[in-house]
Amino acid sequence: MSQAGARRRYWILALLVGGAFGIIGSLMSGTRGGWIGFPFAAWVLYRRYGEVISRRVLRLGVFMCAGVIALMVMTPATGIQQRVEAGVSDVTKYVEDRNAGTSAGARLEMWRGALLMIAEQPWLGRGETGYAEARDAMIERGELSRHVQPYEHPHNEFLDAWVKRGILGLLALLALYLVPLRLFYRRLDSDDLTLRSLAVAGVLLPLTFLDFGMTWVMFSQASGVMVYAFWLAIVWGTLRAHERRLETQQAP
User: Fold this and answer.
1) pLDDT digit string (tens) for 27-73?
2) pLDDT at residue number 87
């Protein structure tokens, strides 16, 4: 085997191991909302690397990921199975009795309250103070459970933007995700593997944040804003620098 071929195999193995540890980290965190993003991230990776990775390596990666997930779920000490069962139980209790005293139940109740507020005032939004006042008023009238009173946002990025900043706020948030997603997606078919890899990283960043935003308001905290903004700037800047380098090399 050539030195380049051996190096390629080592890198593929390192990526598979890194992916497995990434799955372990996500599972161990207990963040069920993040687990929903696994299939979407896997689709992006397969869409771009399925043609350059051998079927044997691809099967190895799938079996490794499936094995890691199965092992983590079946191991009681991880608490993953209990988290899944608790989520199903929480949703069932809310649907049957509107029980908002659980993690998932409280989120569903907050989403319902936000949708009611949006229906009353969809265009301009209520602002931070107006949202809190409307929430408290609905609780006093018995329209919302008191379990949601301590929360400053409805635990959904899109509902939060709409209910507080109106339709323009929602559109601005969607543009913040969809414009970078579109720019990176256009480069997924590049013949240059480095450029393609940067495009994959760029697609996964807004895609995963879209997923996280379904159950949490990522931009309500400085950490969420910094992670998204900094990595977006780093990946886009690196991608554009590589594109300029390729253009210089191809110039006559």
Assistant:
1) 777 677 777 778 888 888 787 777 767 777 778 777 877 887 788 77
2) 86
Given a cut of 90, is residue 25 above it in pLDDT?
no
d(CA 233, CA 229): 6
Do 145 and 172 belong to one domain? no
In Å, what is the CA distance from 34 to each residue of 3, 26, 41, 49, 136?
39, 7, 11, 23, 30
Taking a C-beta distance cutoff of 8 angstroms, is the pair 180, 205 a contact?
Answer: yes
CA distance 164 to 156: 12
**CB-count burial class (<10 Å; 0-12, 13-18, 19+) for 144:** buried
Give domain status of residue 86, yes or no.
no
The answer as to whether 145 is a domain residue is yes
Would you say how long the chain is, in residues?
Answer: 252
Over residues 8-37, mean pLDDT: 73
Q: 40: which 2 tokens?
A: 């979407």
Q: What's 101's DSSP letter?
A: S
Residue with tokens 């989403």: 111
Q: Minimal CA–CA distance to 177: which of 221, 212, 222, 152?
A: 212
pTM: 0.87
